[in-house]
Design the sequence.
């Protein structure tokens, strides 16, 4: 009996020591997890600050001179969220320009009224197809994006066949076929009122095309700042800047005239949500 009593006491003591050790281990794991989270947040903030910090004049000049023959030259290849490349950042003059544009559009938005020519629902239900135009290759059929230049009645389509097509809706003829992407074209955008077209692709690149009066288009810049599929492009209301969103969890803010990426921001929101936000902003812009 005394032996059993001693064994029970030893077992009870061992259980207490084990419980205390497990409690200390759990507390240590929680502290380590919290420290890792704070470290990751600090690294993210530091990387974002580095991307948004303005470059010295010499570095900015070197970055601009890297544009050669319509291509962005990079010794390290494609840039992405983990890249250490410095961006010029959004200057005070650009912020003032964007703020002024926002104030002007806000005033118009308050006075905006539904136009009387807006088609009612019952009229839309009576719409019928007038014509069909096979614009892209039949071996890889499908259109993944579309945009319309209302002033010239020209339609731009991006296809799975890795090309974009400019179609004159009035005459019913193809004006130009923009070839150069190696994978499907995910987004096409007109930049009004200039003859500039933007195209984004699953090949991780964005192309800036310059159109001419005869309908031909030349590729002016090839932008390789993303490391994954470019999902969406939207043009700012000033028509001087545009934004791209990619599956690499970043969006880039570009200067349209130079094709220079001013800043690249890592995002936490999902890409589909970002694309919806961009689409809504573009809808508001077109509605005005």
Sequence:
């Amino acid at each position: 009996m005394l032996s059993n009593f001693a064994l029970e006491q030893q077992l009870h003591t061992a259980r207490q020591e084990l419980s205390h050790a497990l409690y200390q281990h759990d507390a240590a794991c929680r502290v380590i997890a919290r420290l890792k989270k704070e470290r990751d947040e600090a690294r993210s903030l530091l990387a974002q600050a580095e991307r948004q910090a303005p470059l010295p004049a010499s570095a900015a000049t070197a970055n601009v001179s890297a544009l050669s023959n319509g291509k962005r030259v990079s010794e390290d290849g494609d840039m992405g969220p983990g890249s250490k490349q410095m961006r010029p950042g959004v200057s005070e003059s650009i912020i003032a320009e964007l703020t002024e544009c926002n104030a002007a559009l806000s005033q118009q938005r308050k006075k905006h009224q539904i136009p009387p020519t807006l088609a009612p629902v019952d009229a839309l239900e009576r719409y019928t197809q007038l014509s069909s135009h096979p614009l892209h290759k039949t071996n890889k059929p499908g259109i993944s994006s579309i945009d319309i230049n209302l002033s010239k009645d020209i339609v731009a389509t991006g296809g799975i066949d890795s090309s974009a097509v400019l179609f004159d809706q009035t005459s019913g003829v193809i004006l130009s076929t923009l070839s150069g992407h190696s994978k499907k074209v995910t987004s096409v955008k007109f930049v009004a009122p200039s003859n500039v077209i933007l195209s984004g692709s699953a090949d991780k690149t964005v192309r800036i095309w310059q159109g001419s009066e005869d309908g031909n288009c030349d590729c002016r810049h090839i932008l390789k700042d993303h490391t994954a599929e470019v999902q969406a492009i939207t043009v700012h209301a000033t028509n001087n800047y545009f934004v791209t969103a990619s599956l690499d969890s970043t969006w880039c803010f570009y200067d349209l005239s130079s094709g220079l990426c001013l800043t690249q921001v890592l995002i936490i929101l999902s890409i589909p949500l970002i694309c919806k936000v961009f689409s809504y902003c573009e809808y508001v812009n077109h509605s005005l």
About this structure: The first helix runs from residue 2 to 52. Residues 8-39 form one domain. The CA atoms of residues 159 and 288 lie 29 Å apart. The chain has five helices and 14 strands.
